[in-house]
Amino acid sequence: MSDLRERATALDSADPLSALRELFTLDDTVYLDGNSLGALPRHVPARMQHVITREWGSLRIRSWDESGWWTAPERIGDRIAPLVGAAAGQIVVGDSTSVNVFKAVVAASRLAGGGRDEILVDATTFPTDGYIAGSAARMTGHRVVPVAPADVPAALGPRTAAVLLNHVDYRSGRLHDLPGLTAAVHAAGALAVWDLCHSAGALPVGLDAHRVDLAVGCTYKYLNGGPGSPAYLYVAERHQEAFDSPLPGWTSHADPFGMTPGYVPADGSVRGRVGTPDILSMLALEASLDVWDGVSVDAVRAKSLALTDFFLECVAAYVPEGRVTPVTPAAHGERGSQVSLRCEVPAETEPVMRALVERGVVGDLRRPDILRFGFTPLYVGFADAERAARVLAEVLGV
Ligand SMILES: Cc1ncc(COP(=O)(O)O)c(C=O)c1O
Ligand SMILES: Nc1c(O)cccc1C(=O)C[C@H](N)C(=O)O
């Protein structure tokens, strides 16, 4: 046991990202829930104090121009772009992920043209994507076909208009093959829409390199934007001119202050906007993105894999075989940045997670039997991973 503690200390000392933890407001807790709500970067409260007192309190309406409020959705989109492998001008920030799924699915089915009446949807998806895709399909006259990601190539055909997939599965932590599946979707003449909620900020995505058509994601997990921080929509540059938003609000108009009755869409990523941006949340997100200055996503991925490997090793060493079973794949190419453990006795899942939280190890659970541990490489260390596994073994009464 002390061997693993010593290894954790050595791994933390050699970790090139270890200093970043100081940028966050954290206590003695082992925080392994950054895949649900990222931690608060220390400098954000002062920045928000300025936004509220100076920009809102003193400048008031002038801030739409003078404080850059009006252009924040595109500006912050361009800050997120390098983190997901996109060139500038293709991402706009705003609305929730659910709303962006709606925009993306409807727009993709319109881009696919007539004669294609099926939308394939990840059968294991986070529920909101399936609910929204189902409603979108009813409105556009398409039919939703639920398909497990691995079965997508076999399900594609001349009727497929679009495919909605998750890059990393929220429950199992499985990483899906974005390059391979996108290529298969294109070979069938359809469009690929990816949900990046559980991958952006944790691993390289390569949106442009893999010619993804549209993508959405949230910013409150590995991007640490804060509770309910706005989501984003990526529309590849080659689709922007034909992108036909199902929610063409006035802020996506070419001349929003012309206030004319006829809708003329703006060019570029602005076309994905809807209504007035949620400025306070948006500017908290913008400030929080400062922690990425000088940080490479490749380095984050290397640490994420090392952390999850080490946690799995500690669980195997401390917890007797059979009490919990990892459902997150062991293969690096199939693993996101979380480890999900299935409890042998489903009824133990809730009391086990409650006991972990009481002992300062914060993960979460997904019913009926999954304990989830998210590893945010910017602020989680190897000693955290070792302690979490050790406390898990204690809680299981080993
Ligand atoms: C994969 C995935 N998609 C969508 C959502 C929901 O997004 P929102 O609540 O921002 O609409 C979540 C998490 O809440 C998620 O994990
Ligand atoms: N978005 C959330 C929320 O508003 C409250 C509680 C949890 C969440 C989540 O993000 C859940 C998350 N998408 C999941 O992976 O289960």
Task: Give the uncertain stretches in residue-range form.
Answer: none
CATH class of the largest domain: Alpha Beta
Radius of gyration: 22 Å
SSE-based structural type: alpha/beta
Mean pLDDT: 97
The share of residues in helices is 25-40%
Number of contiguous helices: 13
Q: Helix and strand string, N-terminal first?
A: HEHHHEHEHEHEHEEEHHHEEHEEEH
* Share of β-strand residues: 5-15%
CATH homologous superfamily designation of the largest domain: Type I PLP-dependent aspartate aminotransferase-like (Major domain)
Q: How far is the N terminus from the C terminus?
A: 13 Å
Bound molecules: pyridoxal-5'-phosphate, (2S)-2-amino-4-(2-amino-3-hydroxyphenyl)-4-oxobutanoic acid
Largest sheet at a glance? 7 strands, mixed
Query: What is the CATH topology assignment of the largest domain?
Result: Aspartate Aminotransferase, domain 2
Describe this protein's structure.
The chain is α/β, with parallel strands linked by helices. It folds into two domains: 2-42 and 295-395, Aspartate Aminotransferase, domain 1; 70-292, 3-Layer(aba) Sandwich (Aspartate Aminotransferase, domain 2). Helices cover 36% and strands 14% of the residues. It has 13 helices and 13 strands. The strands form three sheets. A seven-stranded mixed sheet has the order 2-8-7-6-5-3-4, sandwiched between helices. It has a four-stranded antiparallel sheet with strand order 9-10-13-12, covered by helices on one side. Strands 1-11 form a two-stranded parallel sheet. The two termini are 13 Å apart. Keywords: Hydrolase, Pyridine nucleotide biosynthesis, Pyridoxal phosphate. Homodimer. Catalyzes the cleavage of L-kynurenine (L-Kyn) and L-3-hydroxykynurenine (L-3OHKyn) into anthranilic acid (AA) and 3-hydroxyanthranilic acid (3-OHAA), respectively. It is an enzyme of class 3 (hydrolase).
